[in-house]
Amino acid sequence: MTERILIINPNSTQEITDHMSAALEAFRFPGGPQLVCETLRSGPPGIETQAHVDAATANLIEWFEQVPERKRADAAVIGCFSDPGIVALRERLTMPIFGMGASSYLTAAALGDRFGVISVVSAAVRRHKRAIRALGLTDQLAGDLAIDLSVVELSNEDAAWKRLVAVGQKLRDDCGAAVVILGCAGMARYRSRLEQNLGVAVIEPTQAATGMALTAVLARRGAAAANRRAG
Amino acid sequence: MTERILIINPNSTQEITDHMSAALEAFRFPGGPQLVCETLRSGPPGIETQAHVDAATANLIEWFEQVPERKRADAAVIGCFSDPGIVALRERLTMPIFGMGASSYLTAAALGDRFGVISVVSAAVRRHKRAIRALGLTDQLAGDLAIDLSVVELSNEDAAWKRLVAVGQKLRDDCGAAVVILGCAGMARYRSRLEQNLGVAVIEPTQAATGMALTAVLARRGAAAANRRAG
Amino acid sequence: MTERILIINPNSTQEITDHMSAALEAFRFPGGPQLVCETLRSGPPGIETQAHVDAATANLIEWFEQVPERKRADAAVIGCFSDPGIVALRERLTMPIFGMGASSYLTAAALGDRFGVISVVSAAVRRHKRAIRALGLTDQLAGDLAIDLSVVELSNEDAAWKRLVAVGQKLRDDCGAAVVILGCAGMARYRSRLEQNLGVAVIEPTQAATGMALTAVLARRGAAAANRRAG
Amino acid sequence: MTERILIINPNSTQEITDHMSAALEAFRFPGGPQLVCETLRSGPPGIETQAHVDAATANLIEWFEQVPERKRADAAVIGCFSDPGIVALRERLTMPIFGMGASSYLTAAALGDRFGVISVVSAAVRRHKRAIRALGLTDQLAGDLAIDLSVVELSNEDAAWKRLVAVGQKLRDDCGAAVVILGCAGMARYRSRLEQNLGVAVIEPTQAATGMALTAVLARRGAAAANRRAG
Amino acid sequence: MTERILIINPNSTQEITDHMSAALEAFRFPGGPQLVCETLRSGPPGIETQAHVDAATANLIEWFEQVPERKRADAAVIGCFSDPGIVALRERLTMPIFGMGASSYLTAAALGDRFGVISVVSAAVRRHKRAIRALGLTDQLAGDLAIDLSVVELSNEDAAWKRLVAVGQKLRDDCGAAVVILGCAGMARYRSRLEQNLGVAVIEPTQAATGMALTAVLARRGAAAANRRAG
Amino acid sequence: MTERILIINPNSTQEITDHMSAALEAFRFPGGPQLVCETLRSGPPGIETQAHVDAATANLIEWFEQVPERKRADAAVIGCFSDPGIVALRERLTMPIFGMGASSYLTAAALGDRFGVISVVSAAVRRHKRAIRALGLTDQLAGDLAIDLSVVELSNEDAAWKRLVAVGQKLRDDCGAAVVILGCAGMARYRSRLEQNLGVAVIEPTQAATGMALTAVLARRGAAAANRRAG
Lengths: 231, 231, 231, 231, 231, 231
Description:
Six copies of one chain form a homohexamer. The first copy, chain A, is α/β, with parallel strands linked by helices.
């Protein structure tokens, strides 16, 4: 029977969920765990303030309670770079749960040296620094710079691309970043192009967190297979 | 065309490479990246001292030089918990390279709170602490305790299992570990059983590092697919 | 006109609000700021899980929105040691806002050396350690030990007292704590007795946070007075 | 009977003591603790060098010894941003003792995010950084910049104000400070104006430290009152 | 012309100065810098409290002022493990100045891994921890344990030796110290014996600090010689 | 009988060994330990990459094994700022072993405040930051800047000097370095001139590490002398 990994977008914008799902296309394979991307209809259109972050917890819990099957999934990814609800869900659910922010920072640290973060808005920088400090990775943070585009401008691919390149180059050249993190789930489609442009690894948070969830699920499957073989 | 991830055991003991390969069985899937587990014949039977760790670098570099195809792999995992040669290989190769130690510590941090490490021998504890300090994760280390069995005793599954359980329980109960890391590539077959016994997540380093490599490779594949779709 | 400091108990148990108000009796003086202790009727009976912590944010915001006058207070104290909603309220309100947890840790650090924390339940220890790490005070934490009494037992003053003394002495003697923090708003009535028993300073979180709020309010008043004098 | 809090200016300049006393005007209230601001006649005109800082200890101890009543005060504030003599006094006196520097840094941390410091002279910056590092708050320091005015220029309010604004704006805009600390006891009269100009909280050290002392004293008074009520 | 290194015992006990001088016997050589051990007659018999530490600054400054020649020495060592006056002297003198405490901690860190400290009295442990934290070496501190003997008992060599061995073994075996520091200038005569008994390096503070001073002086001499050769 | 300190240049360039030996001229004295500077003929012309660093371990071990007398030396200094082989040698040899990098950083910390590093090439900066982080000294690093001259240009004394001064001044003025470290063993001949030019202490790594080795050797000699006297 196939395992399920739930990737839960805590905002109500289906388009972002679709972006996430597209970013994970290569993570689906025959016989592999199902990657189910879901939208929290009860959430706000975007998780922009700390109030949104905190409110997501109740929405996420309620969402799990509504359909008992959900609590029997094999792993979950919280689809927001601010990792809303992650501690609360861990207290209630036994499946492993991954946040996009922490997974990205820690994957960057696994890739080597100091990393930079591209934030959507300046207001997020402070939140990121708190999270990075709590993980103990402050010394590895080369810099966190915002592209400071409105959500509308973000949807203008040309404008967004120009700012991503400018900020990415600044992180690489002025701050000494050897890895760059896209600080938001909605920029997946630029990952590869930006990596080629900058010549340093670029981490996309949906993939970073889901990769960790996939690893956790496959690790268990390996054990089951081994048990069967041994039996 | 299929990507390749090289998992390179820097010691010459084929049996350990076989254990690694078995631990990764579930990470292989139709159409997925090849997971090629290789043994460094030029290495010592085991990486036990810092001299072994340092010497592994030249062996690893030579191994990559011997067959040009190897340098064209898509990612590499260094199959030893001490992450030998990782900085040197990063200076010479463009593929992403993951170490088992760092990947395990960082995966544990992604899973939540404080983690414990089960070392094979006490002498390794100091080395682990240095690595954890360099990553900035000292505050998240609940404890690092050795089972202190000889390699021969390790091959006695009953004896090894008893020590693993005793040390794991101590890490969980006395040290407050919420996650336990198996501090050696050769204990994969106990992962699942130990996780069930302890009731906390247990991380196996071959899987932790290869999961990160798999994520890196699939992330790029996703981009290629997206480019094709867009084309 | 008199300033107002709101001390908001985010749980719905009026008795705890009454304890807080009693703990602040000496902080009220003729002509001084009003200390208004309020109970969030919409909250749970106790803030026990991270889900409670996160849910408190929306309750707190709603509470401020219900009566516009509230947003015009001069300072606010969030009446729970887990500091729920503190970042979110800071994003929305211009008044200074203090959390009981952070205020207690930082007041302990101001008093001198390493501090210990008496937690109500073991489950809270991990949460405290995260908060202390985020503040940068990990090296000053001598220890965090739980009395592990049920809420019912807590209301048995004899049982509670015995455990408080035992845990406090352990923090002082075995952990080297020079200051002890009561890790919960409901233990104010033991503060003085425990301080006398242990011979080290004991910090009560309602007082620590309200003291900081009082300071912030009086500082502004001082400026107003100076302006008047100068006028 | 009324408690006494001693605010001891370790330099011999009465005018600075007067400034401190003025800064505390609002902290005096009917029935409240006496706030007694004293000048150490034996001190130098200003605490400018580390030699002055260290020498203050003996002066402070002698001052307490001269009049036994002083040692029976309820709390003490050392009226200098370098916290001279604080550890030594704690070893000899049982009353709680607060330093202006540590109290300011810790109060800033209680208010939220990263803080900036306005130093009088560049030479002080290094001393501040040492103190902040010892407290564990280095990651929360946004910046420490000096106005670099002579004591004479400082007394020219226009010149001082211009530099304070310029440095404060730089801390806020270039360094990302969300709170600004006045790094000297003699700038109290600018606090309010600067707070309004910058739109971020501005902390004045006399008030920060005395507020903590007031809290400590009132906390004990609360206990006494509770004991009387219970009696 | 021969350089001079001043080793200044800030307490008035000549016997301790004699011990220091004996500890440095091997650091004197024909043509080498003079090692002049001096006793501060104005100091207390022992530097035991923080008040003693702080008061030493003025004594040290006065001592340098009394004889102008002293200020022309080539380096100075402050002969007390608490490093009294070190910052103040650096502000006034241009020669390099070394403290016994900091030099010992940093020399231990240079020798490899985690170090333990043997304190004379428990009261000193807290002071050491502050100093180690300020240097950034907290993670390398394996433990700090006191022998807790009175000064009289200390002079009983048998009693002192027994406690030194017991505490040293505990640091090595229970705390994992790979290096042990004698936390007081008066224990030099046990260094070698203890090193042999414990089988780990034992650092004596007079030697650690004077060794650093000697290095600084010889480094300059080397330059002079090179200049002469080149000339 | 005279002790021997081995200073082992792990690269094969005799000229650099000669520079080291010249830098140590003043550290040799009648009756003092022999300072034997050796060139590892098996090494590369320069230690430039991490592969070189790691490969040095085997060369160093082999060198010690070739002549048993070498293992009986009294201390060793690894003559390269990257401290190659230091952990491995410590596992195999009982003599104290010092690295030039760690010794320089720790000596700088002993001299007082924040230090700057002058690197030869930018690529080394990252390696230094890792080493400094592992030692816990990140907060004391004022900056690390490269002169970025080729080895050929380095041998042009005029060009090298100009860059050293420019980088040193930037470290002092813009970064606030109170001490400057020459980040390479080959710049000893500039130490004194640069110190005079900058007016801050300049540390040369050969001297820093050998000074620590000398201290360790003399400390033992002192004990022997004391034992003889006592006998």
